[in-house]
Each structure stands twice: as structure tokens, then as C-alpha cells.
Amino acid sequence: MHQLEPAIAQFIQAHNRHDTAAIVSFFDPEAVVLAQDQIWVGHAAICRWQQLQPADHTLEITAVRRHFGEFYLQTRWRKAANDADDCQYVFALQDGKISRLIVQTRSNIR
Fold it and tell me: InterPro entries from the entry (predicted)?
């Protein structure tokens, strides 16, 4: 397993359990998520964003890189045995909580 900060590792685990309440708890109350061409700010909005995620997939980490205090996770969004999409998750932390998350799909990764 890749060495991750606790909030990020717990986010991935909760994401794979589809536990929205746990996911939101790892974010700062004023955190920002940039995903699906939208901006989600604060716990209530992040909860709504998470509820839009398909319940039939899991995140598999394929690579981790830390750069200037941000964590870049290359992931594979596994939907079924032979169906997966590559994504990049970029996390910023503040005081042990996720303060910003940027989710880029394969088509947006450059």
C-alpha cells in the first residue's frame, strides 16, 4: 500500500465503502472539491457531490506523488472486473483535514 496521510487514506477507505458521512468528516468544514466541472464548497455541498458518485465502483491507487505539500494520486476507478477509468486525485491538507480535492478524469489529465 502507498504511504498516505491519514485523512487521505481514510477518505479512500470510506469512499470504497460508500460511506458518505465518514467521507465528509475527513474534510475541513470550508473545504473545496473541484470535480465534474463544478465546485463544491463546505460539508453540505461535498455530501451532495459524494452522493452523486456511482455506488458500484471502487478506487484503486496506482501511484502516489507528493509535490509542494499536495498529494497526487493516480487512481483506477474500477466499476466491474474488466471496466475501469483512470483518474487523478489531487489533495491539499490543512491541520490534518482535506482542504481541497481536485478530481481529474483521464480526458482532463495533461
Answer: NTF2-like_dom_sf
